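Allow me, if you will, to draw on your knowledge of protein folds for a short while. I am sending you one protein, given as its amino acid sequence and as whole-number tokens for its backbone shapes. Kindly check, if you would, that the fold set down in the tokens agrees with what the sequence suggests. The record follows directly beneath this note:
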Amino acid sequence: MSTSPVLRIGALAPLSRPGWTEAGRHLLAGLELAVEEVNAAGGVTAGEGASTGEGAGTGEGAGGRPLELLVRDTAADPRRAEAAVDELAALGAVALAGEYHSVVARAAAARAEALGLPYLCSSAVIDTLTDAPAERVARLAPAQSHGWRVYADFLLAAGHTRLAVATEPSAYWAAGTRILREHLAPRGGTVTELDARALDPAALTDALAADGATALLLLTGFPDPAVELVRAVRRAAHRDPRLTGVLIGAPAGQPEFAEWAALLGDEAGGVPFLRYLPARPTPLGARVEAALRTRLGAQPSFVAFEGYDTITVLAEALRTHGPDPASLAAAWPTVTVEGTRGEIRFTRPSPSAPVWQWPDPPVQVTDRDPANPTRFRPLLTR
């Protein structure tokens, strides 16, 4: 058990390229805001027993131990994340938090489990976050199979049964393609893969036109090649009637971030994506949104709320179970807290499920309004 006066939490986020740095910045903003609020309320009085409601997770000003966030930039590199986990464990971190990229979170989760370090993954969605069931790893974000099936249902309801995906080599993109294909096939849908590494945007647009798909999904990195693919398809549609009405979608959430609108301008709208926010904010969510907006100088993304909720959960787990790693990991099936997007608890759907999972995060399909790309339009919420 840690004897330090502070409770150190290791935080992983992509803060430099090739990582999605805007996602990393929003994730870190949520983590930092929650840590500041816990400390302003008196820190964490560890191991005090069950929650008593208002003020849970903090010492309520009565001699609690402050949280300290130890931030490490993963730069979307799994090996760098593994090294960071080793370093954070050596520095006495009582738990690990964060990360956005699925392939990086997988590496961090495996290393954390091997070291016995509890890890609450904030944003990565890939189903196989660990290859075998892990006792010390939990996740806030919905599993990819859940969110992407909601997205596939949205496409089907809109009449899109013939899809094309512009994809790059990645376990995450491959898993997404498989989920879409398996969900659409029983309903008469098809999915054609177009290699975004082998085909430049013009050639990929030609292949899309020849295929006859009514929707193209961007399972690619951002900003490259996603931004140029949007431009290529939109502009080719003016001269090729086969592309008229083709929907461009981005289930991984690239249009969530301001950089998307800044780079694409008037072409940024009308690209449906997944985000993990409720139809209407909770009172806590509204308060945190205002604070995050001030901190970021922009509308906070769902990733910022995931960061805030991560610390909320860890603070409560520390309060009820203490900082000993084995005891803290035992909190996953028992901890219940009010997060910014609803009540958070964790279950393991089956003994073979890889990690402890929040089963009820909100899932929303949204786009940017073509008439005003700075405004979001919720299209479906579950």
Remarks:
- Confidence is low (pLDDT under 50) at residues 48-61.
- The two ends are 41 Å apart (CA to CA).
- The longest strand covers residues 372-381.
